[in-house]
Amino acid sequence: MSTMWMVRSGQDAAYVEEFVSGGHVAIGWPAIGPIEPTASKVEIERRMAAAYPEAKPATLPVWVGNVYRFLHELSPGDTVVTFDPEKRLYFVGTVQQGLTWRDHPLPRVRPVIWESSTPRDVLSVTTRNTLGSIVSLFKIGSEAAAELRQRSVPLGTKPPVAKPGPQGAEPASEFSLLADTLAKADQFIEDRIAKLDWQELQELIAGVLRAMGYRSKVADAGPDRGVDVFASPDGLGLEEPRIFVEVKHQPTTPIGAQQLRSFLGGRKSGDRCLYVSTGGYTKDARYEADRSVIPLTLLALPELRQLLVDYYESLDAATTALIPLKRLYWPAD
């Protein structure tokens, strides 16, 4: 069975009709100019970096990979797919011999014989999720490719209509996908928090406390700061609760009981203490916190991430700039 590729027809599928009527697929990056099919990935990377100096470092390898695959891996006889969001159809065809260049936003062109189409609505939730990547060019997995082939009909034939599945089956599949998406989002947010430096992490915590209604201040730099962040209703400590925060940014090193005892030393009645550790806590440390006479809350990365998300809409601009997040809308039941 031939390899199956997805090739997107520009942003918002702007060139999908051109793809199908013109019998081709194409990709962009015109500023790097024509590239020989024998060009190495190193050469493509050099040309891409020179042509798009404003591109983010994480973006360039993706662009380079797309061009390299289009030149080297997309081969005659491979199956190619593109999506028309207005018709909700995946067009399926076979790549032909040849590679040309044109003056166009999508200048690199491979000829294709379009043979069939598959309605998106007849595909499973799993396959639809697989095909939802925004990458310009990617290889489609074997299971999704098999379903696309199985449910496709020749061009010019009326596409099949999606049949209702068992009661509750589709929402259940979407719920599983949503749960997986949310779990991944949580992990990536924690990854971003872990990548902050020590001072940025303190600013993040101070910002969350402000969003919760307190006035907060990060301690001045220096070895004898006492606490890393201080917060209270008035910001002066004249009103209770007076919140003292210690921050330890060591993602692989859990905090022990002795470190908590040192932090609590000198605290008095009316004080509230918050310990933040990106490396978590030992079992003894959690026991120490539970039996402390001074109220002490321990935050590890998961709890800090949850606080950040809960109060994100109330954060000031300086704090959201540390961890920029985007709202995701999902179909309701």
Count all strands and give the number: 13
Helices and strands, in order, run as EHEHHEEEEHEHEHHEEEHEHEHH
Mean pLDDT: 88
Structural class: alpha+beta
**End-to-end CA span:** 38 Å
Question: Which bin fits the share of residues in helices?
Answer: 25-40%
Number of helices: 11
Provide the gyration radius in Å. 27 Å
Which spans of ≥5 residues are poorly predicted at pLDDT below 50? none
The geometry reads as elongated
> What percentage of amino acids are in beta strands?
15-25%
Domains (count): 2
Give a quick account of the main beta sheet: strands, pairing sense, barrel closure. 8 strands, mixed
SSE topology sketch:
Blueprint (H helix, E strand, L loop, with lengths): L3 E4 L8 H7 L1 E4 L13 H11 L8 H14 L5 E6 L4 E7 L4 E2 L6 E12 L5 H6 L6 E3 L2 H10 L1 E2 L14 H27 L2 H14 L3 E4 L10 E4 L9 E7 L8 H8 L6 E7 L5 H8 L5 E4 L1 H10 L6 H4 L13
Parallel strand pairs: 1-3, 11-12, 12-13
Antiparallel strand pairs: 1-7, 2-6, 3-4, 4-6, 5-6, 6-8, 9-10, 10-11
Helix pairs in contact: 2-3, 6-10, 8-9
Short summary of the structure?
The chain is 36% helix and 20% strand. With 333 residues, the protein is of the alpha+beta class.
How would you characterize this protein structure?
The protein has 333 residues and is an alpha+beta fold. It folds into two domains: 4-163, no CATH class; 194-320, Trna Endonuclease, Chain: A, domain 1 (3-Layer(aba) Sandwich), CATH 3.40.1350. Helices cover 36% and strands 20% of the residues. It contains eleven helices and 13 strands. It has helices spanning 16-22, 41-51, 60-73, 125-130, 142-151, 169-195, 198-211, 257-264, 283-290, 301-310, 317-320; strands at 4-7, 24-27, 79-84, 89-95, 100-101, 108-119, 137-139, 153-154, 215-218, 229-232, 242-248, 271-277, 296-299. The strands form two sheets. Strands 1, 2, 3, 4, 5, 6, 7 and 8 form an eight-stranded mixed sheet that branches. Strands 9-10-11-12-13 form a five-stranded mixed sheet, with helices on both faces. Strand 3 and strand 4 form a beta hairpin. Helix 6 packs across helix 10. The longest helix has 27 residues, at 169-195. The model has no long low-confidence stretch (mean pLDDT 88).
